[in-house]
């Protein structure tokens, strides 16, 4: 591979990344209706033609953007796993619950929500893609939460408790769209840590 090709590929990857990050920011700030390819391209500092070179359709751009940031979110969770590993159970769970809640109160969740709303309104092709994407992201987030919490899902109620934690985090994310009540969120996090302590610290008995 010659020296000219490598920088060109690097520039292409950098342009693609700027478009994906701009798409997320536009969705979070302007919603689906206000997030056209032209608006995203302008925010990314590229031409509309350059944007369409990377993403043939608007649906391609925005589903790729949500998937891209979801992958970054998973990478952050893997980093969190290493960082919390030395901590004792209760302290580790507090950090983990706080970070999981943060996943649903940032720009990614707001952007994903706009995509869900658009997909729910007579947009069959986008709906299929979003349903598939969310199923994959949901499974991976659940799997990572189980690993982070060191939860034994063979024990009664553990799987449902972990899923309830993620559903709670999503609900807090929805509430934050209107009012960001940090004090209430902290109280809810504390309560969920206590719930997890009660469920995950129960010894598993043989022959249950």
Task: Give your account of this protein's structure.
This is TetR family transcriptional regulator. GO terms for molecular function: DNA-binding transcription factor activity; transcription cis-regulatory region binding. The chain is mainly α and 208 residues long. It has a domain at 57-200: Tetracycline Repressor, domain 2, CATH 1.10.357. 77% of the residues lie in helices and 0% in strands. Helix 1 packs across helix 6 (107-119) and helix 4 runs antiparallel to helix 6. The N and C termini lie far apart (61 Å).
Note the topology.
Blueprint: H1 5-30, H2 37-44, H3 48-54, H4 58-84, H5 89-103, H6 107-119, H7 124-149, H8 158-176, H9 182-200
Q: Helical element count?
A: 9
Strand and helix order: HHHHHHHHH
The tally of beta strands, per DSSP, is 0
Mean pLDDT, rounded to whole units?
Answer: 87
Strand content range: under 5%
Shape: elongated
Give the second-level CATH assignment, the architecture of the domain at 57-200: Orthogonal Bundle
| Rg measurement, Å | 20 Å
Summary keywords:
single chain, HTH-type_TetR-like_transc_reg, about 210 residues, mainly alpha, about 75% helix, Tetracycline Repressor, domain 2, TetR family transcriptional regulator, DNA-binding transcription factor activity, 9 helices, Homeodomain-like_sf
In short, what is this structure?
With 208 residues, the protein is mostly helical. The chain has helices at residues 5-30, 37-44, 48-54, 58-84, 89-103, 107-119, 124-149, 158-176, 182-200.
